[in-house]
Specification:
The chain is an alpha+beta fold. The chain contains 4 helices and 7 strands.
Length: 150
């Protein structure tokens, strides 16, 4: 799995998720009404906490997506990408799935976030996104990942 972010511009963030089977999903993330980047950092931290469900939401106006992480036990996580074509829908369509150990799922997404963080300041993140970059939360996630890998 591989997560890549383009350059944030005028409230939009191009985002590409490549799954291990070769499937590629592209999103143009709006900065309203959700802060996908902060939600993704929090969801990955939640996955490392153990069993539970954590969601990061994307709005593409009007289509929405939920990246739902479901950890059933300390060794297994499923990531489902769910698309809602109408925000009033209670059920969306699962358009992609990935699974593995928590680190199998978290590491490639964390790497994408770290790459984005490395250029957020230089690219003027604060001018193009409504929320500040979640640097502190990403640093805490990084510390947890590095401790788990040691």
């Amino acid at each position: 799995m591989n997560l890549r972010f383009g350059r944030a511009r005028n409230g939009w963030l191009p985002t590409t998720l490549e799954l291990d089977g070769g499937e590629t999903l592209s999103f143009y993330v709006s900065y309203l009404p959700y802060d996908f980047v902060s939600e993704l950092v929090a969801a990955l931290a939640g996955v490392l906490d153990g069993p539970g469900e954590h969601v990061a939401r994307i709005c593409e106006e009007p289509t929405e997506h939920a990246w739902r992480f479901r950890a059933f036990d300390p060794s297994a996580v499923i990531l489902e990408i769910i698309t809602f074509h109408d925000v009033r829908e209670r059920r969306g369509n699962v358009v992609a799935r990935a699974w593995g150990s928590p680190m199998d799922v978290v590491l490639p997404l964390w790497r994408g976030l770290r790459e984005l963080a490395s250029r957020a300041g230089a690219e003027g993140w604060h001018k193009h996104w409504s929320e500040p970059f979640p640097a502190d939360a990403l640093d805490r996630l990084t510390e947890r990942i590095e401790a788990a890998r040691a």
